Amino acid sequence: MATDKQKLGDWGEKLIKKFDCFKCKHQNTLKQLPPNFKCADIICDFCGYLAQVKTKQTKNIDKIPKRILGAAWGPQKDRMDSGIYFPLFLILKNDNNHSIFYLSSDLQTQEMFIKRKKLSDNAKRAGWQGYYFDGEIMKNLMTRIV
User: Fold this and answer.
1) Considering the domain boundaries, does residue 9 fall inside one?
2) Which of 10, 18, 37, 55 is most buried by a 10 A CB count?
3) 100: β partners
4) What is the number of domains present in the chain?
5) By residue range, what is the domain housing residue 121?
6) Residue 144: which pLDDT band, with cuts at 50, 70 and 90?
């Protein structure tokens, strides 16, 4: 059974896949990748465009939160070290409305990805380490976010 956060994330990915591909402009080609696919959530099955989608429940859908949970730190760090970033869709949702922010891959910086502490030895996924997006840095990029 999916958690509320997983349902919210799935809703956000389904919302984005309704758009035409942002690279090749084909219609109905954006597909959801399987859960836990590393660093990407959406793929165009025509041109291979990849993007990450983060969805967050918030009262103010016009203001980037201070922190947005990411995913696994290891794969993200490996990609950053190789200069690989995926476009980011940030969806902010409240009870009645939502907003969508887009940050292209070429405008992202390593500083906006903050490593979290590893999970404790008692945790279900002991040793796993995630990251979050620093919303303060993203706010400074607001001139770049669409």
Assistant:
1) yes
2) 55
3) 91
4) 1
5) 4-140
6) low
Q: Give φ, ψ of 115 to 5 degrees.
A: -65, 135
Furthest C-alpha separation in the chain: 47
Average pLDDT, the chain: 93
DSSP for the chain?
---HHHHHHHHHHHHHTTSPPTTT--SS-EEEPPTT-TT-SEEETTT--EEEEEEEE-S-TTS--SEEEEEEHHHHHHHHHTT----EEEEEE-SS-EEEEEE-GGG--GGGEEEPPPPPTTSTTTT--EEEEEHHHHHHTTTT--
Cβ 70 vs Cβ 132: under 8 Å: yes
